């Protein structure tokens, strides 16, 4: 088992004829992902690098019934691309695009929430994220596939290369990963830590979860509070940005300490108070997971039984 | 991106949000000639004026950046005193900001002060209205001492800031009922401005009720979403490069994501999260980071070379730590780029390179065999310890 995606997941790529889309569509296919083709408006009916191209997501859905759309559309058109996928009934949308205006994402997220309240089941991963990978199953994103190894640890993260760092340690130690989800570095996004933790809790293959957060917002704290109430699996957490000064944006649009809120130190304290094992040195994430799993009695007792 | 108060007030005015009339000057002589010719606000009935230093930071009042002139004859002297002065506030950092422009506006008779802001709130994923009866104070302090005196209201983007929203806020603020409609229209204009120009934050502190019963924005602070600047030409035209760090401007020209900090160990990293983590690990190893620098996915020779030049442009830098996780781009190529760039730039400070990921072993061997004066590391913390030690040894 794994979460969200596996070997049978059917994928299309929006923006497949662009430089990034084209390169990564091929890299995902090489990894073994079922990439069935892609969408570029105006290029429908052509074949690009062996992939059939459709004019719209609707056409792609009619032709190949994809489960996932992977988006590489430039920032100015990305919100439209996400909504197009959602309107065509795609259940999992993975948006890699970096630099989407925040207000565009505010409107997209509101519409996705309305659709879900009306009974649809649409999940968005990202934007500004590396994507999702289930090792030896499906790589749907821009992460280097070979650093992953199928295994016991779920990974959820706001960052890209910092995730690779943690994954690499897990792989080197032979622990491996069940699924790795990059939820992205933007302030308004789709899936959050909390939802991904809930999925990992239900996944029998996942024995522990690595949660990589960063400064800004309070999503890590909310997720840890949820875990305290509902999770039995251990969580090993790291928060980047201990040395980041307040008021300065550190690369990601979401990585900013504002109004005294969202500092790394506060987040670490909050996470610890909810029973997350917090490491302050990212070099020891893998080792800490190994030690936790070896210790035998690592299962947590959720504060909230049966609720 | 931030703008000055006078620019924000001009924008407010064009959106129907009332502000005091005023004029911006960059010399005392300019102020003097405007007063002598009785131009604009100096030709009216105003006898009291506010003289306000224009810098991109809050806390100007406490730092001595806002003066009151009881007589227009005092203005040139006050302007001269502010121009060229370095203001240090809680938002400027210890180096402060030099005042290059001064805004002079009509004084207003304040009958009551309020706080009003709109902020893109990640927690509610909506634009939130913050309002308080404690105008003129720092909102963080009010929030800590009297959270009940702040109203936070998230606006549904599907509905917008309609009249009922404005009336709800007006009622919380205890405004006279006769002003409910005026307030609701002010708030809805402000919301329209927020949406139209892709703001992240708009703050009016204080919003005042004047002696003659008008609502007036006495201060104006606005920040915009950098991701949306591509579609905001009018906003971009308001950018003031003097308010930004030179090295940061240079970095942005090369699409490098650089933030200057005040430590001595520079770092160059691919990816924002890993870059922050690298800064943290430098501190953990006993050093202090001189910057945040994300060189993005590919670390080509050109990128690395530009990055080295920017890092070395900071005289406080005593050593450089390069931390690259090679994923899509393989480590031999990255090592090649670092070697070529280091040769061209002629590094005069210790360099530690940590390569990990695809073909890292080959990359590290290339670095060791390059004949360059550098150290190689495998692990992140090992690399940080090596650079901290090298910098201490070099002193």
Give the topology.
The complex is a heterodimer of chains A (307) and B (395).
Chain A: E1 10-14, H1 19-31, E2 34-39, E3 47-48, E4 51-54, H2 57-64, E5 68-71, H3 75-87, E6 92-95, H4 102-117, E7 123-125, E8 131-134, E9 138-141, E10 150-157, H5 161-172, E11 177-182, H6 193-202, E12 208-214, H7 219-230, E13 235-240, H8 264-273, E14 277-278, H9 285-294
Helix pairs in contact in A: 3-4, 5-9, 6-7
Chain B: H1 5-14, E1 22-25, H2 28-36, E2 49-53, E3 66-69, H3 75-82, E4 86-87, E5 97-98, E6 102-106, E7 110-121, E8 126-132, H4 139-145, E9 150-155, H5 163-173, H6 180-196, E10 199-210, E11 215-217, E12 221-224, H7 233-236, H8 246-253, E13 257-260, E14 265-269, H9 272-284, E15 291-294, H10 301-312, E16 319-326, H11 331-345, E17 351-357, H12 360-369, E18 375-377, H13 380-394
Parallel strand pairs in B: 14-16, 16-17, 17-18
Antiparallel strand pairs in B: 1-6, 2-3, 2-6, 4-5, 7-8, 7-10, 8-9, 10-11, 10-12, 13-15
Helix pairs in contact in B: 2-3, 5-6, 8-10, 9-13, 10-11, 11-12
Polypeptide structure, described:
- The complex is a heterodimer of chains A (307) and B (395).
- By secondary structure, chain A is an alpha/beta fold.
- Chain A has helices at 19-31, 57-64, 75-87, 102-117, 161-172, 193-202, 219-230, 264-273, 285-294, and strands spanning 10-14, 34-39, 47-48, 51-54, 68-71, 92-95, 123-125, 131-134, 138-141, 150-157, 177-182, 208-214, 235-240, 277-278.
- Helix content of chain A is 34%, strand content 21%.
- In chain A, strands 3-4-2-1-5-6-7 form a seven-stranded mixed β-sheet, sandwiched between helices. In chain A, strands 9-8-11-10-12-13-14 form a seven-stranded mixed β-sheet, with helices on both faces.
- The longest helix of chain A has 16 residues, at 102-117.
- Chain B is α+β, with helices and mostly antiparallel strands and 395 residues long.
- Chain B folds into three domains: 1-20 and 109-244, D-amino Acid Aminotransferase, Chain A, domain 1; 21-107, Dna Ligase, domain 1 (2-Layer Sandwich), CATH 3.30.1490.20; 246-394, Rossmann fold, CATH 3.40.50.
- Helices cover 35% and strands 25% of the residues of chain B.
- Chain B is built from 13 helices and 18 strands.
- In chain B, strands 7, 8, 9, 10, 11 and 12 form a six-stranded antiparallel β-sheet that branches.
- In chain B, a hairpin with a 4-residue loop joins β7 and β8 (126-132).
- The two termini of chain B are 39 Å apart.
- The interface between A and B is large, with 62 and 56 residues.
């Amino acid at each position: 088992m794994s979460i969200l995606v596996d070997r049978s997941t059917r994928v299309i790529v929006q923006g497949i004829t662009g430089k990034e889309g084209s390169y990564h569509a091929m890299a995902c296919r090489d990894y073994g992902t079922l990439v069935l083709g892609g969408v570029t408006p105006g290029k429908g009916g052509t074949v690009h690098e062996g992939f059939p191209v459709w004019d719209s997501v609707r056409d792609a859905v009619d032709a190949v019934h994809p489960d996932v759309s992977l988006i590489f559309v430039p920032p100015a058109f990305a919100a439209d691309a996400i909504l197009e996928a959602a309107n065509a009934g795609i259940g999992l949308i993975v948006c890699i695009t970096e630099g989407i205006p925040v207000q565009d994402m505010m409107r997209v997220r509101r519409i996705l929430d309305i659709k879900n309240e009306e009974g649809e089941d649409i999940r968005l991963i990202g934007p500004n994220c590396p994507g999702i990978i289930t090792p030896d199953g499906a790589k749907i994103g821009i992460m280097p596939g070979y650093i992953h190894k199928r295994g016991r640890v779920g990974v959820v993260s706001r960052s890209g290369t910092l995730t690779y760092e943690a994954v690499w340690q897990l792989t080197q130690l032979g622990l491996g990963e069940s699924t790795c989800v990059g939820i992205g570095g933007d302030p308004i996004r789709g899936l959050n830590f909390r939802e991904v933790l809930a999925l990992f809790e239900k996944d029998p293959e996942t024995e522990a979860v690595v949660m990589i957060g960063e400064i800004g917002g309070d999503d890590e704290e909310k997720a840890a509070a949820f875990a305290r109430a509902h999770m039995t699996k251990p969580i090993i957490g790291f928060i980047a940005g201990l040395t980041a000064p307040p008021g300065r944006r550190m690369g990601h649009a979401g990585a900013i300490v504002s109004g005294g809120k969202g500092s790394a130190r506060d987040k670490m304290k909050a996470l610890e108070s909810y029973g997350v094992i917090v490491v302050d040195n990212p070099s020891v994430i893998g080792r800490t997971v190994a030690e936790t799993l070896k210790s035998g009695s690592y299962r947590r007792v959720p504060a909230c039984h049966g609720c | 991106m931030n703008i000055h108060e006078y620019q924000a007030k001009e924008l407010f005015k064009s959106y129907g949000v009332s502000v005091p009339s005023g004029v911006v000057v960059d010399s005392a002589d300019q102020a003097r000639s405007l007063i002598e010719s009785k131009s604009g606000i100096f030709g009216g009935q105003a006898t009291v004026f506010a003289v306000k230093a224009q810098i991109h930071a809050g806390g100007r009042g406490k730092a001595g950046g806002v003066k009151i002139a009881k007589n227009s004859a005092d203005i040139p002297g006050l302007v001269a005193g502010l121009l060229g002065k370095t203001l240090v506030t809680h938002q400027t950092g210890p180096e402060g900001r030099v005042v290059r422009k001064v805004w002079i506006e009509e004084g207003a008779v304040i009958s009551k002060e309020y706080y009003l802001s709109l902020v893109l709130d990640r927690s509610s994923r909506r634009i939130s209205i913050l309002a308080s009866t404690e105008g003129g104070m720092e909102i963080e302090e009010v929030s800590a001492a009297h959270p009940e005196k702040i109203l936070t209201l998230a606006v549904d983007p599907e509905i917008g800031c309609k009249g009922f929203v404005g009336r709800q806020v007006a009622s919380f603020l205890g405004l006279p009922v006769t002003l409910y409609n005026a307030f609701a229209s002010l708030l809805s204009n402000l919301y329209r401005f927020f949406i139209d120009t892709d703001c992240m934050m708009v703050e009016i502190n204080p919003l005042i009720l004047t002696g003659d019963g008008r609502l007036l924005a006495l201060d104006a602070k606005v920040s915009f979403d950098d991701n949306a600047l591509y579609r905001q030409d009018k906003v971009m035209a308001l950018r003031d490069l003097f308010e930004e760090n030179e090295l940061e401007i240079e970095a942005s020209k090369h699409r490098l994501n650089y933030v200057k900090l005040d430590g001595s160990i520079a770092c160059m990293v691919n990816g924002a999260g890993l870059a922050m983590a690298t800064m943290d690990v430098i501190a953990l190893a006993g050093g202090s980071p001189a910057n945040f620098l994300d060189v993005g996915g590919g670390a080509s020779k050109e990128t690395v070379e530009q990055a080295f030049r920017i890092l070395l442009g900071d005289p406080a830098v005593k050593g450089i730590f390069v931390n690259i996780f090679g994923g899509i781009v393989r480590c031999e190529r990255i090592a090649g780029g670092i070697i070529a760039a280091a040769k061209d730039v002629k590094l005069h400070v210790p360099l530690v390179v940590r390569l990990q990921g695809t073909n890292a072993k080959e990359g590290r061997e290339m670095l060791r065999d390059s004949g360059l004066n550098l150290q190689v590391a495998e692990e992140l913390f090992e690399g940080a310890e090596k650079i901290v030690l090298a910098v201490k040894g070099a002193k």
